[in-house]
Amino acid sequence: MLTDPAFIRRLDSLYLLARKILGGSLQADRRSNKKGAGITFADYAQYSLGDDYRSIDWRVYAKFESLLIKLFELEEDATIYLLLDCSPSMLSKQEYAKQLTAALGYIALNTLDRLAVYGLADKLLPLFEPSRGRNQVLPFLKSLELATSFGGGTDLSACAREFEARHRRKGLVCVVSDFLLPGGFEEGLSRLQWHKHEVFCLQTLDANDLHCEWKGDVTLECVESGQAQRVTISPREAKLYEQAVAEWNENLKSTCAKRGIGHIRATPDQPFEEVITDLLRRGGLVT
Fold this sequence. Notes:
Structural class: alpha/beta
CATH architecture of the largest domain: 3-Layer(aba) Sandwich
InterPro entries: DUF58, vWFA_dom_sf
Distance between the termini: 31 Å
Helix content: 25-40%
Mean pLDDT: 85
Largest sheet: 6 strands, mixed
C-alpha cells in the first residue's frame, strides 16, 4: 500500500537522503527566476466544471477530443513528468514500478517542484494532474495506488504525440517502463525530446523478461494482444530468446547514451530505495 504510514516513512527517509546527497537545494538547481511582466502560458490541465471555458484549447480538442484548459504562471519553475507504463505486460512488475514512481514523485513534491503523472499504454491517461506542494503528497500516492492496467500494448510514439500536445513547457520527463515495446522506443523518445524536455528512462524488468525457464511443447499467449502460438522450446531456443532480450536492452542503453538520455535498469529483487539512492548518487534524473 503506497499510502501506508510505514511506506511513507521509507519515502521520507529517501527524501532526507536526497537532500543530503544533492546538497539540500534540489529545487534551486532547476528553478528559474525568470518572471514575466504579465501572465505567461505555463501548461495544460484537464477541464473541469467551473473552469473558465475561454481557457479551453480548442485546437487540442479538435485533435484528441479532450477538453484541456491553458494554465498561466508568472514564474517559471521546474516540472517533473512521470510516465508510468500501465500496459498488461507490466502486471508482474506493476507494484514495483509504482514504488519507484512514488519515490520520485514524493521527492519532487517535497522540493516544491511541479509534478504531473500519466499512465502509458496504447494512449496517455492522466493519473495525477499538475500540482505542487507537500500537501499534495497524499493525493498523489492515492492516485498512484488506484492506477490499474489498461489498454493493449504500449505505444510510446502515440503517447509522446499526445504528451506534446498537452505540455509544450520544458520539463523533466521520466518514463518508467520495461521498454519491451512492439513498435520500438526510438521514435517515442525522440518526440519527448522535441520540445527540449530532459528525458530519463527507468527500465523495470523481472526474471521472466530476462530468462526463459520453459522447456518442451508449450502454448504461448501474449498478455497484450491475446495472440497464442504453439511452440517447442529446446535449450537452443531458450538461449536465443535470452540473447535477443539482451541485445534489445543493450540497444536501449546505447540509444539513450547517444541521445543524452539518462538510463537505469531495475529489477524487483532490488529494494526500490537502493535504485533511487543509486540514481541520486549519479546526480538525479538530470543527465
